Task: inverse folding
């Protein structure tokens, strides 16, 4: 059972690192958001320490991180950008588009 728990921590840590990097955050910033020291956060990404349910909830509430993906690696099947942009306020639409542009900029910047 301990080995299964350790492997789950490693998988969650990998997904968390991927999410953090996609969002353009440092380990220090994610540690701040979670209310832990940076060294502890590094251990979470490495899988030597696990996330508590409280921390998973913080990631969901503050950063909109899908807890199902984080824990089991499964993404929601449906994503319809047209539907989302049609059914949100102008403020939300600007926020979404701004975030998309930031993400594209980060991708381009990494490849240079």
Result:
């Amino acid at each position: 059972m301990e080995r299964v728990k350790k492997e789950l921590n490693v998988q969650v840590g990998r997904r968390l690192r991927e999410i953090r990097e996609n969002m353009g955050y440092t380990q220090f910033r994610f540690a701040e958001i979670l209310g832990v020291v940076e060294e502890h956060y590094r251990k979470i990404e490495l899988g030597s320490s696990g996330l508590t349910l409280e921390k998973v909830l913080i990631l969901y509430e503050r950063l909109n991180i899908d807890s199902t993906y984080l824990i089991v690696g499964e993404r929601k099947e449906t994503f319809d950008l047209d539907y989302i942009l049609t059914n949100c306020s102008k403020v939300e639409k600007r926020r979404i588009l701004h975030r998309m542009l930031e993400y594209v900029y980060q991708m381009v910047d990494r490849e240079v």
Q: What stands out?
A: The chain has seven helices and no strands. The helical segments are 2-23, 27-34, 38-46, 53-63, 67-72, 81-86, 90-111. The mean pLDDT is 88.
